Amino acid sequence: MIYCFDVDGTICDECCDFGYEYAQPIQEMVDEINRLYDEGHTIKIFTARGQATGIDYEQFTKEQLDEWGVKYHEYHKKPSGDFYVDDKAWTPEAFLRRTK
User: Fold this and answer.
1) Whole-model pTM?
2) For residue 67, what are the CA distances in angstroms to 31, 34, 77, 81, 85?
3) Nearest-angstrom CA–CA distance, 3 and 67
């Protein structure tokens, strides 16, 4: 299976008011993502960091993901938006509850 994960508010806390350097990982999400990766699933990371401002946060974000120990196969930019509508979307809470 292929799993796609957002960064802010999903893998880490919402940090935009203080700057991305203050983001803290949500360890339960990191652990579950890594479990899926270790089971052979494909993990894709998507983020809109910098899309609205034009600032390139790709290298910084990849370094954060590495620091937090997040295992993934692909990294992608997504467009900036206030809402994302998707028929296959889960909230982080629903994702974590699915195996309990």
Assistant:
1) 0.90
2) 14, 14, 19, 27, 30
3) 21
Q: What gap in Å lies between CA 72 and CA 4, rounded to an integer?
A: 10
Strand partners, 46: 6, 76
- Residue 41: partners with Cβ closer than 8 Å, 6 or more residues away: 1, 2, 3
Q: Where are the domains of the chain?
A: 2-97
Q: 35-93: per-residue pLDDT in tens?
A: 999 999 999 999 999 998 899 999 999 999 999 999 999 999 999 888 888 988 989 88
Give per-residue pLDDT as tens, 2-40: 999 999 999 999 876 668 999 999 999 999 999 999 999
What is the CATH code of the structural domain delimited by 2-97? 3.40.50.1000
Token pair of 89 as six digits: 């979307």
